[in-house]
Amino acid sequence: MGKTGVVGGGASGLMAAICAAQHGAEVTVLEGRDRIGKKILATGNGKCNFSNRDFLIPRDYRGHHTDLLPRYFSRFCVEDTVLFFREKGMLATDRDGYLYPRCGQASVVLDLLEGELSSLGVKTVCSCPAERILPPKGGRKQFLVETRQGTFSFDRLILACGSPAGYRTQEGEGGQKLARDLGLSSYEMFPALVGLRCRENWYKRLAGVRCHAGISLRIGDKAQKPAVSEKGELQLTDYGISGIPVFQLSRYASLALGEGKSVFADIDFLPEIPLQDWPSFCLEQYRLCENRTALQLGNGLVHKKIAQVLLAQCSLKDTDPVDRRTKKKVFSFFDSLRRFETQVVSPNPVQNAQVCAGGVSLRDVTDNLESRKIPGLFLCGEMLDVDGRCGGYNLQWAWTSGFIAGTCAAQT
Prior knowledge:
The chain is an alpha+beta fold. 32% of the residues lie in helices and 24% in strands. It is built from 14 helices and 21 strands. Strand 15 and strand 16 form a beta hairpin. Helix 1 (11-22) runs parallel beside helix 6. The N and C termini lie close together (7 Å).
C-alpha cells in the first residue's frame, strides 16, 4: 500500500484521504490554503447542502461524457453518503430531497472529516500548494511533489485540486497547470454556477429586488426558441441577474459567450399563471385597474421597482391613467411581464463562481478514476470534467469520486 499523497484538501480530497487511510495507506494531504475544507464551510449558505435524494444523472450533471457517470455513482451513491456521515455521528435532515446536517451548520461536516483524519493518522500540510509533479520514470518508482515546503514522495498520488471557482485571481489555477504539465487531456474550465452580467443600464434601479420568476436562455439568433429554462427566486443586482435559477443556467451562458455567441435571457415575472389563462387575466387586471394609475396597476402584480422599469420601457409614466388612451401601452406592459428580454454579456468572474465546468476528461481515467496515461495517479472532484446543478449535487460528486479514488489508490 505504501504512501499515498492527496493534493488538495477540499471535500473530494478529504474523502479520498479518509478512504485511503481506512484501507491501510499512509496518507498525507497537501493543501494550498491555510486550512483544509474552507469551501465546505461556505456551501448551502453555511448550512452545507451535502447531497440530494432527488437524484437524476442526466438532469443533474453536465460534462462531455456524463454517460460514464452511472458506473461511479453505482459504487457510492446518495444513501452511502448519508450512512458515511451517520456513522460519524451526524444526523441529516431532508428538505424535499435536499440533505443538510440536522444541526444546520456546515462546520459539523468539516469537524467530522477532520476528526476522522486525525483518528486515522492522516497528516495534513497547509499553505503548501503543489508547484510541480514528477511521475515515476526510469529508475524512480515514486511520485515527487515539489512545493514551497519541500519535496514530498509518494507511491500513489491523488489529484483533488478542485477548480479556480471561489479563489482569488490565479490562486486556484494550480490544478489546471498540474494537469497540463502531466499531459492529461483536459477541457478548458469556465464558471458554471455564477451570476450573469447584463448589458442594459436599468439594473442599478433594480438592485436588491428578489422575486419568483421563470428564466429562459436564448443563444445566438434572437428569434430562436429558448435553449434552457428554470424557475425560482430571481435576484436582481446592480450588474444583472443572479439567484439559484440563474446559477442553474449560467454554464450554458458561459459556454456560449466563450464561443462568441450572443446570449439573451427572457424573464417571466408571473410564471405561476398558465399561458392559456394569460389573455383573460390581462383583461381582468385592466378592468380592475381602469381609471387608476399605471403604477397602481403594476404594483398589484410585481415589485414596485420592477413595475417602474417595465412601465418606462412601454412609454408609460407612473401617473398615467389606465384608460382607453393608454390601453395599447398597458397591454404592452402586460406582455413585458411574461417576456422581459435582457442581453447577457458575461458571467461573473470565476472567483465568484461556486463551481467550474471543464477539467480532465472522464475518458482519460479508468473506472477506478486512475489516469490511463500515468499508472498510480488518481483524480477526483472538480479536477474532472463533471459539474452539477445547485442542490448538493457537486458535493455528492466530491464524496463519490473521493471514495473511489481513495479506496482504489490504497488497493493498487
